[in-house]
């Protein structure tokens, strides 16, 4: 019986590890990029300046969120820019957050151009979000949805291109962001990426460890009794 339990525990471990590698990817996944590479104008201020998160809800839909870190705001003129991995895409639900007085709700517009629009110091991006005002409408969060009408995305990391995925126009603000610390402002782009683990994989690993722990506990109790 003891040998049977050990064989069963070993089999469970092997099968669990096999499923981890063979399990299909979940239909929704996410990835986050740091805005930490400044252009020359922004380089006097140390980053990271914010984060760009990509949440793929299915093969043709994704939500992008730009979030600035403390002391920084997204301002007018290429406020947020991404290189979308698609030749035809629709932007929807474009919104921005604000910090209250002296800020008012940002007025945002989007431009998708397959030939790309220049973002200072970093080349062309095919989707650019513009804010209409330098400070009053500056924002700390920009969110928009994407619909891919030219193909599909297999994962969150496939939604944006691998090179120069995103960039933003960064304004350095004072405590409470009641004013910009002019003339320090510039652009930052993404570099490092952090992948969020998929819920199905986490659940499988948890189940595997629980199963192995159960058999280990039974073995330990049997040893004490003997």
Task: Please describe what this structure looks like.
The protein is built from two helices and eleven strands. It has 226 residues and is α+β, with helices and mostly antiparallel strands. The protein has two domains: 54 residues; 171 residues. Strands 1, 2, 3, 4, 5, 6, 7, 8, 9, 10 and 11 form an eleven-stranded antiparallel beta sheet that branches. α1 packs antiparallel against α2. It is globular, with a radius of gyration of 24 Å. The two termini are 15 Å apart. 31% of the residues are buried.
Would you summarize the structure shown here?
The chain is α+β, with helices and mostly antiparallel strands and 226 residues long. It folds into 2 domains: 1-26 and 199-226; 27-197.
Describe the structure using short key phrases.
alpha+beta; 11-stranded antiparallel sheet
Structural class estimated from helices and strands: alpha+beta
According to DSSP, the number of beta strands is: 11
- Strand % is 35-45%
For the CA atoms, what is the radius of gyration? Answer: 24 Å
Helix content: 10-25%
For the largest beta-sheet, the strand count, sense and barrel status come to: 11 strands, antiparallel
Shape: globular
Task: Kindly give the count of domains.
Answer: 2
Mean pLDDT: 80
Q: Report the end-to-end length measured between terminal Cα atoms.
A: 15 Å
Number of helices: 2
Assembly status: single chain
Give the H and E element order.
HEEEEEEEEEEEH
Are there runs of 5+ residues with pLDDT below 50, and where? 4-27, 197-221
């Amino acid at each position: 019986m003891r040998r049977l339990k050990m064989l069963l525990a070993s089999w469970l471990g092997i099968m669990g590890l096999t499923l981890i590698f063979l399990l299909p990817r979940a239909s929704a996944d996410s990835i986050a990029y740091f805005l930490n590479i400044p252009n020359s104008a922004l380089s006097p201020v140390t980053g990271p300046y914010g984060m760009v998160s990509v949440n793929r809800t299915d093969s043709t839909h994704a939500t992008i969120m730009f979030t600035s870190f403390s002391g920084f705001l997204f301002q007018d003129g290429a406020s947020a820019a991404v290189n979308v991995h698609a030749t035809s895409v629709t932007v929807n639900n474009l919104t921005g957050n604000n910090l209250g007085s002296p800020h008012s709700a940002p007025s945002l517009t989007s431009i998708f151009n397959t030939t790309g629009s220049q973002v200072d110091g970093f080349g062309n991006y095919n989707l650019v979000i513009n804010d209409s005002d330098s400070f009053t409408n500056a924002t700390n969060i920009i969110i928009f949805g994407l619909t891919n009408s030219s193909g599909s995305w297999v994962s969150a990391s496939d939604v944006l291109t691998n090179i120069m995925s995103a960039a933003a126009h960064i304004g350095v603000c004072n405590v409470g962001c009641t004013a910009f610390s002019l003339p320090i402002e510039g652009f930052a782009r993404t570099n490092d990426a952090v992948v969020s683990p998929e819920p199905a994989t986490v659940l499988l690993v948890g189940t595997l460890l629980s199963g192995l722990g159960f058999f280990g506990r039974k073995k330990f109790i049997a040893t004490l009794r003997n």
